[in-house]
């Protein structure tokens, strides 16, 4: 049975930009999938992550803040026929890249309670550079009450130029424009869905698609 996780570029961009904006902090967020693409309710097959919602860079352990964030996110995804299927995090210490050191474990486990077969993506700080040669992420999946590591080839990307697109965003300093839920709680006018970044990713995807076609045909 195949067990691959595909990540749309905008989701990949948001989680990488979140970690890049706060290299001195632990960060976390949730991963979203299209409910209609979860085959027959079987949550152990291939999964497509269509979006990522950045949560915190300093409120990881403040339960009321997490409850507010998850309630708003749940309302949003239900309206879009989507579902929260996973969690991502980066550790505060540059050298800590293990799942045990990641913040917000209770949030991740709550997601796993609601979605058996949930995934946990750990951002590898050592690979987080402006020019990405490989995906700076490690995939884990909830199984038998534990987060179990998956091989690197278990992650696929929606487009063949996802690394190029996100590298371009990093080089342009787009991470400074990313809004997480901590930012939103400080200023309720800020857009925690990051639609501006989504539009930029879509524009780069279109441009890269043309370049890719020109190179290969």
UniProtKB/TrEMBL annotation:
MPN domain: residues covered: 5-143
A Pfam family per the record: UPF0172
Segments passing through the bilayer: none
InterPro entries (UniProt xref): EMC8/9, MPN
Family matches, as PROSITE patterns: MPN
Recorded family membership: Belongs to the EMC8/EMC9 family.
Name of the protein described by the UniProt record: MPN domain-containing protein
């Amino acid at each position: 049975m195949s067990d691959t996780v595909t990540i749309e570029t905008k989701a990949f961009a948001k989680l990488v930009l979140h970690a890049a904006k706060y290299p001195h902090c632990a960060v976390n967020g949730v991963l979203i999938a299209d409910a209609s693409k979860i085959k027959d309710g079987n949550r152990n097959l291939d999964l497509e992550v269509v979006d990522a919602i950045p949560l915190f860079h300093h409120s990881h352990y403040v339960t009321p803040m997490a409850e507010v964030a998850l309630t708003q996110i749940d309302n949003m995804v239900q309206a879009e026929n989507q579902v929260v299927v996973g969690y991502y995090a980066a550790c505060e210490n540059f050298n800590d890249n293990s799942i045990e050191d990641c913040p917000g474990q209770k949030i991740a486990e709550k997601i796993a309670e609601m979605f058996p077969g949930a995934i946990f993506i750990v951002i590898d700080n050592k690979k987080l550079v402006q020019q990405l040669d490989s995906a700076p992420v490690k995939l884990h999946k909830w199984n038998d009450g534990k987060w179990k590591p998956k091989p690197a080839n278990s992650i696929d990307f929606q487009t063949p130029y996802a690394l190029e697109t996100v590298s371009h965003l990093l080089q342009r300093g787009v991470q400074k424009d990313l809004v997480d839920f901590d930012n939103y709680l400080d200023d309720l006018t800020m857009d925690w869905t990051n639609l501006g970044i989504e539009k930029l990713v879509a524009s780069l995807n279109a441009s890269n698609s043309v370049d890719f076609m020109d190179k290969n045909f």
